[in-house]
Specification:
The chain is mostly helical. It has one domain. Helix content is 76%, strand content 0%.
């Protein structure tokens, strides 16, 4: 199980790098567009479309947030449950999340095939839209798989929730 999690973490790292590059491109294009629009009255053609493309390209970063525990969690109630209570809560939440990711993945592929059949392109840049639907659909599929493996890992590793209990105990003493 640890070998699978190492592979998934490696995949997550690659997807995070892609998302960071997309974010940097989005920032650079937006700043350049604003600068050129204000000082030279010559905005970048298709800057909004490029920003939309980069936003979709950032969707795989969800995988890294999950596997590297960089997501937001509020444990006011759940942290007070024992390990079994937390596992039950996680079972419900993770399976619901994985199910929603599967629906997004499926719908992404449905839209992908529609856009390919229609030969739809972005208005200003004339770039096909389907590759970005593919990125989204594949990233949601990978995310669903990672959610399921993270849930299995939480059941497998008995120390997953031990940190929360010790952190909670340490916080009460202060």
């Amino acid at each position: 199980m640890k070998a699978i999690m190492r592979v998934l973490n490696a995949i997550a790292t690659v997807l995070e790098v892609i998302a960071i590059i997309a974010l940097l491109v989005m920032i650079f294009i937006t700043l350049a567009d604003v600068f050129l629009r204000l000082f030279f009255t010559r905005p970048i053609t298709g800057a909004v479309e490029i920003t939309r493309m980069m936003m979709v390209t950032m969707s795989p970063a969800f995988v890294g947030a999950l596997l590297k525990h960089r997501h937001v969690s509020v444990g006011l109630v759940v942290d007070r449950f024992g390990r079994k209570g937390q596992l039950v809560f996680d079972l419900f939440g993770y399976l619901l999340s994985a199910g929603l990711c599967v629906v997004c993945c499926y719908q992404g592929f449905v839209e992908l095939f529609k856009k390919m059949a229609q030969k739809q392109v972005y208005t200003m840049l004339k770039i096909p839209t389907w590759p970005f639907y593919l990125i989204f659909a594949v990233s949601m599929g990978i995310f669903a798989i990672c959610i399921v493996f993270q849930l299995i890992y939480n059941f497998y590793d008995k120390s997953v929730y031990a940190e929360n209990a010790s952190a909670q105990g340490g916080g009460d003493q202060a």
